[in-house]
Amino acid sequence: MMLPCSSENLTSELQIEEPRTLGPVHVALHFWNTLEMTEIFKECGLSNRDIMLTQAEVFGRLIEPMSEHATLGWMQRTAMSDLMGKEVLETKKDALYRITDRLVENKERIEELLARREGKLFRHEDAVYLYDLTSSYFEGTTQDNPKARHGYSRDGRPDCKQVVVGLALDREGFVKRHEVFEGNRQDITTLKIVVDRLREGLKDRKRNPTISVDR
């Protein structure tokens, strides 16, 4: 004789072990592959392990931005190891710091290749760019960061050293160029540097874009 199987009986037998978040990581991986990010980083000379670390760092910043130390714990709670391989769980905090340094070294090339790829996918017109600045402050002495200085704080923390970040986007919101400046840098002195970098990337185009800035 077979007894009817109720959902209540089934759910009472279920146990949850090591739950992992899949959705956001799956979406991030989809766009990573669509933008051919692995190929971009290979062209910049990064090894397969470096690219894996970059992927972990980028996904963390996209989905749940936090410190490198906290990012390691977040990775354990996601399905990254299922999608990217078990070796991602062997990542150490210092490895994330080191790969960030590698990315900074190749910043110009990465931005150039990524902008080129985005243009093919989304058919962007380099007609209008938007440029603005923000600042990011530090807790601590920042003795090893020569750009960390006291300056006008947009965060309301004049007691802390900071850096100034200039960001150029197209009208669709895609980042084209960015620069990190000294914390005491005057806004107006940053514009020429970013414009020159944009002009260098557009030297094979037939027309120059309009760059919109606030005063």
Which keywords apply here?
215 residues; four-stranded mixed β-sheet; 45% helix; globular
Structure notes:
The protein has 215 residues and is α+β, with helices and mostly antiparallel strands. Helix content is 45%, strand content 14%. It has 9 helices and 4 strands. A 4-stranded mixed beta sheet has the order 3-2-1-4. The longest helix is centred in the first third of the chain and has 16 residues. The radius of gyration is 22 Å and the shape is globular. The protein starts with 6 loop residues before the first helix and ends with a strand. The model has no long low-confidence stretch (mean pLDDT 86).
List the helices and strands and how they pair.
Layout: H1 7-13, H2 23-34, H3 37-43, H4 48-63, H5 68-76, H6 80-84, H7 93-105, H8 107-122, E1 128-137, E2 162-170, E3 175-182, H9 191-201, E4 210-213
Parallel strand pairs: 1-4
Antiparallel strand pairs: 1-2, 2-3
Helix pairs in contact: 2-4, 4-7, 5-7
Oligomer category: single chain
N- and C-termini, Cα separation:
83 Å
Cα-atom Rg, whole angstroms? 22 Å
Following the backbone from N to C, one meets helices and strands in this order, namely HHHHHHHHEEEHE
| Total number of helices | 9
The parts where pLDDT drops under 50 for at least 5 residues are none
What proportion of the residues form beta strands (DSSP E)? Answer: 5-15%
**Major β-sheet annotation:** 4 strands, mixed
Shape: globular
Taking all residues together, what is the mean pLDDT? 86
Count of strand segments:
4
Class from helix and strand fractions: alpha+beta
* Widest beta sheet: strand line-up: 3-2-1-4
